[in-house]
């Protein structure tokens, strides 16, 4: 080594971290020897198969010798500089280096001799192989000189020579490297854009050459800082990242990537001569896809790159699929919202307020308010079992069936006999008008018919709904209702005092055909409010799994409110505040009705 930037003379003892760094530096020239000789062997072997010639056999023989001796040198270095948590004195280390030189000098000499023999071969057009052979030769000289300096306990940092062939630009090197012996390769489809990050130019160019031959688009960065700048500006499918680099090392680059929501899914393969298990574990814990030691096995690198890119492609397809799915779910959400009343039903002397917020794009909860041809109004509050798309589809079915059957069904026979046969639970008929009672009774048959239709046609799916269906006579406030397994509804006076609790009068709708649904009647007096909710309100929970619970809801209901809209909004705001940063666990639905006069 003709030039040095500085000597480090202060070191008198080598700790494990320094040994690891030296092992890294020793492997760098070996990486070039093995990598470039392997590429030349591949080129010549493919050419022989294609042209059925044997003129290159002497060259192939010498390259194989270079490969064999390079691997032997690597094995000796690994053996003498083991991964041990042990420090070395200057004397101990010099002895190790003497032993290392004694074992590796003959092997390095063989590599240099093989390079000379290839250059001297008359069948070899020297210009074709010059660049790669010169890299192999110079790397062997560097390795030998480095070992001499280490034996003298002189740690040096070489200054790059501008005339050195290793400083040829990457693109120029790849475009001009032995074109006459390389067969014209068929263009391969680019399977991914790879960013190779390494502060050693030989390593970068070796990776560039090897990966472009595999059909990948390859960019290179000289250090971690440049890599992060490039990643911020362009999309990459895979990053090959060196660990030891100036300014920003591989750890910092990896941590920065994995903290970026937009970039954290780019697979990163660490490639480093530092192969201590602690380094490997730390990189994997931070988020590296894999870790390969230098000099890397080309076949293993190819396999790891392929596996990483396949995972990346699968994730990209998954993201695209989820984006399409979300668009479809958004359309479903819009359709489902169209099922619900666009605004609360307007009834003279009555006030109605509602709230609906699905836990996902689509929901199983629903409410409905509509008027029958005879002037009576229907109030519906329901919760289909389960969540998501399946529940949403059945929500549409339940809602449509209730609407259809409340309009169409009529009991046959004389009114007095029908009313005598069908009696409200507990109170008998309290409505003073038999015609109105019959209208309510007929409309409520929709619940039984809907139950039978769902159970008979879709019973194998196990879908059902808890449901409150009330028929309201706006003239006198009479409500006749069925509560099919739903949460109890509250009837509050103007001061928030509970007058009635509308508990379940029958099972959930759709569980089994032929189930009986009892019904009840009551009058909603002037100033009274009917309030109902689905269990998503009381089951709303914080990030620490604390439920909202019925007690909190009742505390809010036990107060007077100027309007049902204020009542519903107060409960809504309190529940959403309670949920906080947690995911909404279930759909939130509320219905409130107040008689004004």
* Average pLDDT rating: 84
Number of helices: 16
- Number of separate strands: 19
What topology, given as strand order, has the largest sheet?
Answer: 6-5-7-8-9
Low-confidence stretches: 1-9, 156-188
End-to-end span in angstroms? 103 Å
The main pleated sheet reads as: 5 strands, parallel
Multimerization status: single chain
Spatial shape: elongated
Rg measurement, Å: 40 Å
What is the share of helical residues?
Answer: 40-55%
Main structural class: alpha+beta
Question: What can you tell me about this protein's structure?
Answer:
By secondary structure, the chain is an alpha+beta fold. The chain is built from 16 helices and 19 strands. The strands form 5 sheets. A 5-stranded parallel β-sheet has the order 6-5-7-8-9, sandwiched between helices. Strands 10-19-18-15-16 form a 5-stranded antiparallel β-sheet. Strand 8 (about 270), helix 9 (about 275-285) and strand 9 form a beta-alpha-beta unit. The longest helix has about 40 residues, at about 300-340. The chain is elongated and about 120 Å long. The N and C termini lie far apart (about 105 Å). The relative contact order is 0.07. Residues about 1-10 and about 155-190 have low confidence and may be disordered.
Short note summarizing the structure:
The chain has 597 residues and is of the alpha+beta class. Helices cover 49% and strands 17% of the residues.
């Amino acid at each position: 080594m003709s030039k040095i930037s500085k000597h480090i003379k202060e070191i008198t003892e080598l700790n494990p971290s320094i040994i690891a760094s030296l092992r890294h530096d020793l492997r760098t020239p070996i990486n070039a020897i093995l990598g470039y000789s392997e590429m030349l062997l591949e080129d010549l072997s493919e050419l022989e198969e294609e042209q059925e010639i044997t003129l290159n056999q002497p060259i192939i023989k010498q390259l194989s010798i270079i490969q064999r001796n390079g691997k032997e040198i690597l094995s000796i270095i690994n053996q003498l500089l083991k991964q041990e948590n042990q420090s070395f004195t200057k004397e101990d280390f010099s002895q190790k280096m003497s032993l290392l030189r004694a074992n590796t000098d003959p092997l390095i000499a063989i590599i240099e001799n093989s390079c000379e023999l290839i250059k001297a071969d008359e069948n070899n057009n020297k210009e074709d192989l010059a660049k790669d052979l010169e890299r192999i030769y110079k790397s062997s000289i560097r390795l030998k000189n480095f070992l001499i300096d280490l034996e003298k306990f002189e740690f040096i940092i070489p200054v790059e020579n501008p005339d050195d062939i290793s400083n040829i630009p990457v693109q120029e090197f790849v475009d001009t490297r032995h074109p006459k012996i390389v067969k014209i390769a068929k263009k391969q489809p680019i399977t991914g854009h790879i960013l190779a990050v390494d502060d050693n130019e030989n390593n970068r160019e070796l990776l560039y050459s090897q990966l472009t031959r595999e059909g990948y688009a390859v960019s290179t960065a000289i250090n971690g800082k440049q890599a992060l700048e490039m990643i911020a500006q362009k999309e990459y499918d895979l990053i090959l990242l060196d660990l030891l680099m100036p300014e920003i090392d591989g750890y910092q680059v990896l941590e920065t990537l994995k903290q970026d929501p937009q970039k954290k899914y780019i697979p990163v393969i660490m490639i480093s001569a530092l192969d201590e298990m602690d380094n490997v574990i730390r990189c994997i814990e931070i988020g590296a896809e894999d870790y390969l030691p230098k000099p890397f096995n080309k076949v293993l690198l190819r396999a790891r790159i392929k596996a990483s890119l396949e995972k990346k492609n699968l994730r990209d397809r998954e993201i695209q699929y989820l984006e399409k799915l979300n668009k479809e779910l958004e359309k479903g959400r819009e359709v489902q919202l169209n099922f619900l009343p666009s605004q609360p039903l307007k009834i003279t002397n009555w006030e109605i307020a509602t709230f609906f917020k699905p836990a996902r794009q689509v929901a199983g909860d629903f409410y409905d308010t509509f008027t029958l041809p005879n002037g009576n109004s229907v109030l519906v509050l329901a919760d289909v079992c389960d969540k998501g798309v399946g529940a949403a589809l059945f929500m549409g079915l339940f809602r449509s069936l209730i609407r259809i059957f409340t309009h169409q069904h009529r009991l046959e026979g004389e009114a007095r006999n029908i009313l005598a046969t069908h009696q409200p639970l507990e109170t008998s008929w309290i409505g003073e008008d038999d015609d109105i009672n019959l209208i309510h009774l007929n409309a409520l048959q929709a619940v039984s018919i809907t139950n039978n239709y769902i159970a008979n046609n879709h019973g194998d799916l196990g879908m059902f709904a808890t449901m409150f269906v009330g028929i309201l006579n706006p003239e006198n406030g009479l409500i006749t209702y069925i509560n099919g397994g739903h949460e109890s509804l509250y009837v509050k006076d103007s001061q928030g005092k509970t007058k009635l609790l509308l508990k379940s009068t029958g099972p959930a709708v759709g569980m089994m055909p032929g189930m009986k649904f009892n019904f009840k009647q009551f009058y909603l007096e002037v100033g009274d409010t009917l309030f109902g909710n689905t269990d998503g309100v009381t089951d709303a929970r914080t990030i620490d799994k604390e439920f909202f619970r019925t007690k909190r809801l009742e505390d809010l209901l036990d107060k007077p409110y100027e309007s049902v809209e204020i009542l519903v909004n107060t409960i809504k705001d309190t529940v959403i505040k309670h949920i906080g940063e947690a995911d909404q666990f279930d759909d939130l639905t509320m219905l409130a009705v107040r008689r004004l006069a």
